[in-house]
Amino acid sequence: MRRAFILLVLLVTACEGSFVRPEDYGRKVEINKSYEARDTCLKQHAVDGTAGIDATTVASTAAHACQSETDRLITAANPDRDSKVTASIRQDTEFRAMKYVLQARGLRSNETGSDQVSQSTVTRPAD
């Protein structure tokens, strides 16, 4: 019985490292902080001058103004410096900037918890 217990303890402790890695947890926290900082920056810049300027221009300006936050997010989330990951994060920044601009203008409804664009902002491609 004692041998079985020792064998069980050895098996469990040998696999322990594969389930929880402290460095992954720290990295996850850093990524979450970076996302929050970037999104806060985008929200602040999305309301600047939204009245008479095109939404795309405001979103692009907001994304550019938050470049340092985006770069920190890329550094935290992409330690291997994969160009596809970098491009995806930059595209997400542009998308979120547009989302916050539309929210600031009251054109986006987030009451149901989903990101639905109101019918007034939908444009259909020409056939």
Automatic annotation (TrEMBL):
It comes from the Bacteria. PROSITE patterns: PROKAR_LIPOPROTEIN. Residues 106-127 are annotated as: Disordered. This is Lipoprotein. Residues 109-127 have a biased composition (Polar residues).
